[in-house]
């Protein structure tokens, strides 16, 4: 299987830019390319999708056991000419959910991106540190970002000294993708993104050894793994909020619902008037605070959300979706009225709140699980609520814990994001409730 991971020494070292350039270069050669992102990131995959025109998928070893991770990798790479995986943070960061851990599970060769700005001989020290730290590993070689051309002979010699491959450089390109508090801005928000991606592709073609990357083959096999996916004959329809304000949703979650038999209906809480007629509702995370004024002014949509949820429409509302169900969102010195499902207020903080992976234990039976069940989740937000809910006990690896989430027989709402492949029962329970809702709706209309 032809595959490679583009990892980095740290966040912000340039791996997303280089990843996009490599994807574009491979696509320009007429190859079928599969792209992946390590960890729970929603934003970087939007850049991958913009480049190759198909969904990018997450690989997360916190959410998935080894077999499930291999299943997802095989499912979304089978039949393609090459699979390219973007790492997360620094290569070794994240313990058992690091890019290094995922490369080990999938036996994928790794190219490390080093930001060389302000370095010369120290580059070799960084290389040796990565090669020799936590061995064995699958590091095949390096790409040197922001490296002056005059230092190319030096870094080629460093590669010879270290017994690894030189895969090229990325010179200063004169621009970068903008960031905000949750990472890069979404691909759709970048001015002249197509022009910038074309420029990056040209620079990569000229300076990165694409042919040498194509010579890399992983030591894994064609994983012939299957998961037992429950099929629902009732074919319920699921309305999913999808616009610039609500864009943090795993493509695997949607694909899994479709595989179970669901019909997906997308809508925009900013631009549409009401929630479409459906048997279930998902309001994912995103940036409702940035678009709070427009959301608040769409009163018919907010009223529709409240009426649908109060009437028992099975609903999952995560993070930004949860925020929108409050009385109001206080942000940027303004106060915006929202859907008023919860008698509480969302407010801005100055740092990431309860950031990272968590395990949640249910205190009561609810839409997605039974009392006492454990669910894996992830939090990533700068906003908080005067009432985060109490129906789950969340716990971090270091022992910190807190109460979170509002639930009922037809509702899951809270800051934590869910990944359905971490526990297929989450999706099954949700879809089952959607089927029951569809049946009751049919009986009422008969």
Topology readout:
Elements: E1 3-8, H1 15-28, E2 33-38, H2 44-52, E3 57-59, H3 66-77, E4 82-86, H4 99-106, E5 110-115, H5 122-132, E6 139-145, H6 152-162, E7 165-170, E8 179-180, E9 183-184, H7 193-207, H8 210-214, E10 237-241, E11 246-248, H9 251-260, E12 263-267, E13 280-283, E14 285-286, H10 292-297, H11 299-310, E15 315-318, H12 320-324, E16 326-331, E17 334-337, E18 342-348, E19 356-362, E20 374-379, E21 383-385, E22 392-395, E23 401-404, E24 406-408, E25 411-414, E26 417-418, H13 424-445
Helix pairs in contact: 1-2, 1-7, 5-6
Widest beta sheet: strand line-up: 3-2-4-1-5-6-7
Individual helix count:
13
Question: What is the percent of helical residues?
Answer: 25-40%
CATH class of the largest domain: Alpha Beta
Q: What portion of residues belong to β-strands?
A: 25-35%
Number of strands: 26
In round numbers, the mean pLDDT is: 91
Number of domains: 2
Q: Which overall shape is indicated by the principal axes computed on the Cα atoms?
A: elongated
- Any idea what the CATH superfamily of the largest domain is called? P-loop containing nucleotide triphosphate hydrolases
Helix/sheet category: alpha/beta
Low-confidence stretches: 180-184
CATH architecture of the largest domain: 3-Layer(aba) Sandwich
Distance between the termini: 54 Å
CATH topology of the largest domain, by name, is Rossmann fold
Largest beta-sheet characterization: 7 strands, parallel
The gyration radius over C-alpha positions equals: 23 Å
């Amino acid at each position: 299987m032809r595959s490679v991971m583009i990892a980095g020494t740290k966040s912000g070292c340039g791996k997303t830019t280089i990843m996009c350039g490599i994807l574009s270069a491979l696509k320009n050669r007429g190859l079928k390319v599969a792209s992946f992102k390590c960890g729970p990131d929603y934003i970087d995959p939007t850049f991958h999708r913009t480049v190759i025109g198909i969904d990018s998928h997450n690989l997360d070893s916190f959410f998935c056991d080894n077999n499930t991770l291999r299943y997802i990798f095989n499912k979304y790479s089978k039949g393609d000419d090459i699979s390219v995986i973007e790492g997360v943070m620094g290569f070794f960061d994240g313990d058992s959910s690091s890019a290094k851990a995922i490369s080990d599970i999938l036996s994928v060769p790794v190219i490390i991106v080093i930001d060389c700005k302000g370095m010369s001989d120290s580059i070799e020290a960084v290389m040796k540190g990565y090669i020799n730290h936590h061995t064995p590993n699958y590091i095949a070689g390096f790409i040197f970002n922001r490296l002056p051309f005059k230092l190319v002979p030096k870094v080629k010699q460093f590669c010879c000294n270290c017994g690894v491959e030189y895969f090229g450089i990325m010179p200063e390109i004169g621009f970068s993708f903008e960031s905000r508090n949750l990472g890069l801005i979404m691909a759709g928000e970048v001015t002249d993104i197509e022009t910038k991606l074309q420029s990056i592709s040209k620079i990569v073609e000229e300076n990165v050894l694409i042919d040498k990357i194509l010579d890399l083959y992983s030591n894994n096999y064609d994983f012939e793994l299957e998961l037992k996916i429950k099929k629902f004959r009732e074919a319920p329809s699921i309305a999913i909020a999808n616009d610039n304000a609500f864009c943090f949703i795993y493509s695997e979650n949607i694909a899994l619902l479709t595989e179970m038999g669901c019909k997906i209906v997308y809508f925009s809480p900013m631009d549409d008037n009401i929630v479409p007629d459906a048997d279930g509702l998902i309001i994912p995370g995103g940036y409702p605070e940035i678009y709070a004024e427009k959301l608040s002014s769409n009163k018919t949509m907010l009223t529709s959300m409240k009426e649908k949820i109060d009437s028992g429409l099975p609903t999952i509302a995560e993070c930004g979706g949860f925020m929108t169900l409050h009385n109001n969102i206080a942000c940027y010195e303004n106060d915006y009225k929202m859907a008023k499902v919860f008698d509480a207020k969302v407010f801005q903080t100055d740092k990431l709140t309860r950031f990272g992976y968590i395990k949640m234990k249910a205190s009561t039976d609810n839409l997605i699980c039974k009392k006492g069940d454990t669910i894996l989740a992830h939090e990533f937000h700068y906003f908080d609520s005067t009432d985060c809910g109490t129906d789950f006990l969340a716990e971090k690896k270091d022992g910190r814990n807190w109460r979170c989430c509002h639930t009922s027989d037809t509702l899951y709402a809270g800051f934590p994001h869910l990944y359905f492949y971490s526990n297929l029962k989450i999706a099954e329970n949700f879809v089952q409730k959607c089927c029951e809702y569809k049946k009751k709706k049919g009986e009422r209309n008969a």
